[in-house]
Amino acid sequence: MSKENTQVLKQRREKADSLADLGVNLYSNAFTPANRIKELPPKGEHLEAETQDETNYTYSIAGRIMTMRKFGKAAFFNIMDSSGRIQVYVKKADTGDDVFATFKKWDIGDIVGIEGKLFKTKVGELSVRADKLIMISKSLRPLPEKFHGLTDVETRYRQRYVDLIVTPESRETFKKRVDIVRLMREFLSNRGFMEVETPMMHPVPGGATAKPFRTHHNALDMDLYLRIAPELYLKRLLVGGFERVFEINRNFRNEGLSTRHNPEFTMLEFYQAYATYTELMDLTEQMISWICDEVNGTMAIEYQGTQVNLAPPWKRMTMDEALIKVAGIDAAILADDEKVIALAKEKGIQLEDQAGPGKAKTELFELLVEEKLIDPTFVTAYPTEVSPLARRNEENPEVTDRFELFVTGRELANAFSELNDPVDQRQRFEKQIAEKGNDEEIHHEMDEDFVRALEYGMPSAAGEGIGIDRLVMLLTDAPSIRDVILFPHLKPEVQKQSKKKKKGKD
Questions:
Q1: Where are the domains of the chain?
Q2: Is the domain covering 3-147 a CATH 2.40.50.140 domain?
Q3: Termini Cα distance of the chain
Q4: Is CB count within 10 Å lower at the N or C end of the chain?
Q5: CA 436/CA 500 separation, integer angstroms
Q6: How far apart are CA 48 and CA 70, in angstroms?
Q7: How far apart are CA 380 and CA 278, in angstroms?
Q8: What CATH architecture does domain 165-326+369-497 belong to?
Q9: 3-class SS at 143?
Q10: β-pairing, 126-137 with 84-91?
Q11: Using N-to-C axis directions, what is the helix angle for 448-455 and 231-239, rounded to 10°?
Q12: Which of 406, 463, 476 is nearest to 179 (CA)?
């Protein structure tokens, strides 16, 4: 901390001590505002400049002081609550000497309560003329300087509570996130889907290929895993007779951090009995385009300087078609197993010894195609080799009835017609376990209970997962997943500081 900041903190604490000496409760719980700030402006629209509301009604508001201009016997300051801002005018003649004396020790950042009447200033700004002032919470740390705010991005993530105070765009992003999730629930509920909750701790990790977080339950003396996906539990509900289910909740994957990845992230996952993946393509297209229009007022948006049109219909192509049209790979190479594997290795892709042509195609797609899919595009016919839970295509068993949705070069959704054959499912689980080899990053175990559930009979169905964080990024023009997660994971501050000190010694 700089000497300047240390001095400011000292001054703030001294002010707090002097207020306490005057008998002021620095952290009062005796004031309940009757009004929110956004409720005030409509009441004052009829007022002319330099006039007061003739109804003489007293409003009661509370909020944080954001700006302040003090004069000799009067002051103007702005306070902000969760609904908006308004100016407050304080005059010594209105409050009395003692109250005004304590008010002069208030700082920007303090949370205060105000009672007063509406009026408009000479320049026509709606304001509250304070009759009563109360300290609710004394701020001992200064807010960032008004015109620069929180300029360090990492500090914004680490001290989100400050970011939300001083960065209107950040507040709007998270308000919009709430709207997006609410609209998802509304869309699915209106179509007969039931929202459910499934376990966060699994005895066997499954539903995706990822490294899980491991914990231990002492009473049961058993290891458990934070879920990497809710898929296998939601499918158990299909077996139980719930035909349309969805869950919006956290998944956890013990993997790296990036602008697209956080170890803890939010997913929407939903399943519909007696449906196919093509029906989910239609539903996804309708849902996301509608949500975009609801929150942004248009389906034509801009993401990081690139125009994106979410208006239906969206592009659809198979993985082979994408590799041919977008990556420019000869169709004859894709039809030859040895040649496609050789091409992948030629492009620098590291393939495991047991990897087949399906894995090679998928890796080539990720390397050469993904980032070029800007407008929403459904990519279908994923190789069976990389789709252990998806139904094989009846005409071509080498691929599955699956799609992934890409927008602005990023995967946004993954869906498929579900595998409900318990014999086929067991064989695929066994193949996954056998192919794991020495890779400790990926955890595969046979989920005997899930196979048993399938043996009771699961209806034909389609299921899908949508990354909510990535969708919010798209609809709020956020460059990083950390911009749309309130408290993203970061390295500990102590660890960062120790590295800096060590670097300085070198």
A1: 3-147, 165-326+369-497
A2: yes
A3: 22
A4: C
A5: 39
A6: 25
A7: 9
A8: 2-Layer Sandwich (3.30)
A9: coil
A10: parallel
A11: 30
A12: 476
Which range has the worst mean pLDDT, 180-184, 338-342, 423-427, 437-441? 437-441
> Cα(51)–Cα(124) distance, rounded to whole angstroms?
9
How far is it, in rounded angstroms, from Cα 394 to Cα 414?
20
Write the CA distances from 153 to 141, 142, 150, 191, 479, integer angstroms.
Answer: 19, 18, 7, 41, 12
Does residue 129 sit in helix, strand or coil? strand
Which residues, at least 6 apart from 221, have a Cβ–Cβ distance to it below 8 Å? none
Q: What ranges in 352-447 are assigned the alpha helix state H? A: 357-368, 422-436
Token pair 């519909």 is found at 272
188 residue type, one letter: L
The conformation of residue 483, written as its DSSP 8-state character, comes to G
CA–CA distance from 122 to each of 43, 46, 119, 125, 147 (Å)? 18, 15, 10, 8, 25
Alpha-carbon gap, residue 349 to 337, rounded angstroms: 16
Rounded to whole angstroms, what are the CA distances from 212 to 159, 223, 450, 470? 28, 12, 18, 21
Q: CB count, 10 Å around CB of 272?
A: 24
pLDDT tens per residue across span 215-241: 999 999 999 999 999 999 999 999 999
Tally of CB atoms within 10 A around 47: 17
In three-state form (DSSP H/G/I as H, E/B as E, the rest C), the secondary structure along 213-237 is: CEEEECCCCEEEEECCCCHHHHHHH
pTM: 0.90
- Residue 437 confidence (pLDDT): 56
DSSP assignments along 158-213, one per residue: HTHHHHHHH-HHHHHHHHHHHHHHHHHHHHHHTTT-EE----SEESS--SSSSPPP
Q: Is the pLDDT of residue 505 over 60?
A: no
